[in-house]
């Protein structure tokens, strides 16, 4: 067991000290993964234990104005990062088929590296989503999918910045920023209040878009295992595992939330149709009985007249 631990520690230092990108070595939070791990653990503790305990005897906080500002900030920040990814990478200089790592100090390359680092910082800001749920006592929205997704992202993106902050793997953050622009725009409308609920009919499709992004990320990453490309496949393997895991969680959420709801609605419609048919038959039967009674009354009148 001791040898196994020693091997793990040795491999860790080999990766962090010798295989990491020297350009980000002295950047904020990039010297070690431990601060990010600590932040994620504190987040998990607050979301599941400390937060609900704190709110147990308190009324939900009204955070409408804060949520509108926060969600608008997310739309703007994600739009900026998507623009950066487009301008210096995926819509101008990068190849969707194979984009090797670039360790140079070229202005465009450094610009991409900085965008990837800001994306990493943004994943910490995303944790506020859950904090707001707790303070508003929306504990039903703090699902396993929500917690796992928010815990994994900062930690996994840290390794992305540390080992491969340019090249093929940046597609993950690029497409994710685009999806988050749509998602947080939805949240902006939702935060405006009940009057705007009628404009949120596309909520179901938002989950579909989330799943499509992880399918695209998986396919985009997998192709490098079948062609020659100067990009670390070991890192792409981490990206693929991450994407498939989150895709599975989203699919389970979609299935339990929307497919069951659809099934229940269909069952309700069927029951209503059945009830309507019974009511119709009952009305027809009553009408027939009334007609028969009317007929008998007319016949009796004729007999009396005779």
UniProtKB/TrEMBL annotation:
Gene Ontology CC, one term: endoplasmic reticulum membrane
Domain of life per record: Eukaryota
UniProt main location, coarse: membrane
EC number(s) recorded for this UniProt protein: 2.3.1.199
Kinase keyword on record: no
Gene Ontology MF terms in the entry: fatty acid elongase activity
Transmembrane segments: 27-46, 66-83, 117-135, 147-165, 171-193, 205-227, 233-254
Localization of this protein: Membrane
UniProt keyword list: Fatty acid biosynthesis, Fatty acid metabolism, Lipid biosynthesis, Lipid metabolism, Membrane, Transferase, Transmembrane, Transmembrane helix
Signal peptide: none
Enzyme class at the top of the EC tree: transferase
Reaction equations catalysed: a very-long-chain acyl-CoA + malonyl-CoA + H(+) = a very-long-chain 3-oxoacyl-CoA + CO2 + CoA
Gene Ontology process terms (BP): fatty acid elongation, monounsaturated fatty acid; fatty acid elongation, polyunsaturated fatty acid; fatty acid elongation, saturated fatty acid; sphingolipid biosynthetic process; very long-chain fatty acid biosynthetic process
Topology relative to the membrane: Multi-pass membrane protein
InterPro entries according to UniProt: ELO_fam
Protein family per UniProt: Belongs to the ELO family.
Identification of the protein by name: Elongation of very long chain fatty acids protein
Source species: Zophobas morio
